[in-house]
Write a structure and sequence with these properties.
It is built from 16 helices and 17 strands. The protein is of the alpha/beta class. It has a domain of about 290 residues: TIM Barrel (Alpha-Beta Barrel). It binds zinc ion. Zinc ion binds next to loops. It holds the Pfam family Amidohydro_1.
Length: about 475
């Protein structure tokens, strides 16, 4: 009798606690996680929980949090690293189909890439390349990327489908290209694209003037003005090469590319400058004061022997700076995780100081730093309540990851992109246990492989050697 009564009261209590907790029913919970929040205090929960409802993070904390919620989907990650999704601040995603062509050709951009693109860039090429690159990024833990290329409306369709987040910049350049006969047509194309995507929840349309020296002053000023009117980003290759430096010095009375952009009124918070290798202290000051973002593409810059950007100095001085891979003809991978190692080691070498670039700084540049560079730090870049649920899970049981005494060191010096287990964007799981859930990966790979026949034929016909 008393047992029955206590069972009854337990049942009633259960009923009440169920109704009291009804408000705490959520969509997704990640449990048993080593959570790197990347918040201001860089809080780490060794045995942590991340709670997601809809597309937002509603709670982050230790294991006790798991008792307070009932989730439709629970990912028990068994001690794996849970961290903010990586943000790739600079790429040309569609160029995956050209990857490994003519890697070490001198003056490659002008002698090889521009001619190749004039023959092969099309809506199909852009779509096929973007689909492949998107899969590579999601599988490598990149949840947001910033792109500069042609037919960006095609890239947008692929981003929409896979479920990633992206800033997509439509190229403006002074010579004829696949989707515009001149810079003015490029601006028109960009304006149409901006109109089409300005209200998309995950896609931010943008202008992408190729570089200062491949556009006129008038074009750069027009874009700066339009970007402020429409409140959209402007992405540009800036202070990247000596060729650019010479052309701009000729045009602007010996000014550096950064000084020149400042002098024409084009340096502002909407601008994201990729590379920024050839910058001095005065340039860094201008960059900092303008509030612009910087994309640091270490592997592309050292592969092309263009130099090492003073990115660490910019970071230490409070410039908005994040990591990027550059395009797959330059990098050659699109996964930021494969940059970590090089970013850490090269800055140490250049500064002749093994403590110069601690792993925590590298991870910060790939998450919050990158979010700041893209002016998105109030939405992404850390695991905090109210932020969008862009989250990745990194395997700590892979042979190359055992043991993890320091998660930042493990990520920077031991991890590779294949260690990413799950990728979540906007609260939705896009990859689970390395399986893509929103797109058909096999079909995407097949289509890309088929397109390489077209590339091979064109390259051979043009007399260029496939290396
Ligand atoms: Zn680039």
């Amino acid at each position: 009798m008393s047992i029955k009564r206590s069972l009854l009261s337990a049942a009633i209590a259960g009923l009440f606690s169920f109704s009291a907790n009804a408000a705490d029913k959520v969509d997704l919970m990640i449990t048993d996680a080593m959570v790197l929040t990347m918040n201001q205090d860089k809080t780490v929960y060794q045995n942590g929980t991340v709670v997601v409802d809809g597309n937002k993070i509603v709670a982050v904390g230790d294991d006790s949090l798991a008792q307070k919620y009932t989730a439709r989907q629970v990912l028990d990650v068994d001690g794996d690293i849970v961290m903010p999704g990586l943000i790739n601040t600079h790429t040309h995603v569609s160029m995956t189909v050209f990857r490994s062509l003519a890697d070490d050709v001198p003056d490659r951009l002008h002698r090889y890439i521009f001619p190749l693109e004039s023959k092969l860039v099309s809506r199909d090429m852009v779509r096929i390349g973007a689909n492949l690159g998107n899969v590579e990024m999601v599988k490598g833990g990149v949840t947001t990327y910033a792109d500069m290329y042609y037919f960006e409306d095609e890239v947008a369709k692929t981003v929409d489908k896979i479920g990633m987040r992206a800033i997509l910049g439509e190229t403006v350049i002074k010579f004829p290209v696949a989707d515009a006969a001149n810079a003015d047509e490029g601006i028109k194309y960009a304006l149409n694209f901006i109109e089409q995507y300005k209200d998309h929840p995950r896609i931010t349309p943008a202008f992408a003037p190729h570089a200062p020296y491949t556009n006129t002053t008038e074009t750069l000023q027009k874009i700066a003005k339009l970007s402020l009117e429409h409140d959209v980003p402007v992405m540009i290759h800036l202070a990247e090469s000596h060729r650019e430096e010479e052309k701009i010095a000729e045009r602007a009375d010996g000014m550096s590319p950064v000084q020149y952009m400042h002098s024409i009124g084009a340096l502002n918070k909407n601008l994201v400058g990729a590379h920024m290798i050839l910058v001095d202290d005065q340039d860094i000051q201008l960059v900092k004061e303008s509030g612009m973002g910087v994309a640091h593409n270490m592997s592309a810059n050292i592969k092309s022997a263009k130099g090492v950007s003073p990115a660490l100095k910019m970071y230490d001085e409070g410039v908005r700076i994040g990591l990027g891979t550059d395009g797959p003809m330059s990098g050659n991978t699109l996964s930021t995780i494969d940059e970590f190692n090089q970013v850490a080691k090269v800055h140490k070498l250049v500064n002749k100081d093994r403590a110069a670039m601690p792993p925590l700084k590298v991870i910060d540049m790939a998450t919050m730093g990158a979010a700041k560079a893209l002016q998105m730090e109030d939405k992404i870049g850390s695991l905090e309540v109210g932020k969008l649920a862009d989250i990745i899970v990194v395997d700590t049981k892979a042979p190359n990851m055992i043991p993890v005494y320091n998660p930042y060191s493990a990520l920077v010096y031991s991890a590779n992109s294949a260690n990413v287990r799950h990728s979540i964007v906007d609260g939705k799981v896009l990859m689970k246990d390395r399986n893509m859930l929103t797109v058909d990966e096999a079909a995407i790979r097949q289509e890309a492989l088929e397109f390489t026949d077209v590339v091979r034929k064109t390259v051979v016909e043009s007399g260029e050697v496939v290396q």
